[in-house]
Design goal:
disordered N terminus, single chain, three-stranded antiparallel beta sheet
């Protein structure tokens, strides 16, 4: 089990909350009933992939991973899509 990072940017919290809430809505449960997202993926890595760097922004890209038997896709614009794993 991965340990949760002690600090991460506020954007990480917003995007990760969006992911967990979307899965909770699909599962028709409270987000607190789901396992922590950090047990699946490093939350800071999600925003790190799409965040600004000293030389440029990353306006494109897509990250896909599985969480709670759903395929979660996050794009550079912050859109989150949730589909059941087959």
């Amino acid at each position: 089990m991965a340990s949760r990072p002690e600090t991460h940017p506020p954007e990480t919290d917003e995007l990760c909350t969006k992911i967990v809430e979307a899965v909770a809505e699909r599962e028709q449960c409270d987000a607190t009933e789901l396992p922590p997202l950090y047990e699946t993926i490093d939350p800071a890595a999600i925003t790190g992939l799409f965040g600004l760097t000293p030389t440029h922004s990353r306006p494109t890209g897509r990250l896909t991973f599985e969480y709670c038997e759903y395929r979660v896709a996050v794009d550079a614009g912050g859109s989150v899509s949730i589909t059941p794993c087959e």
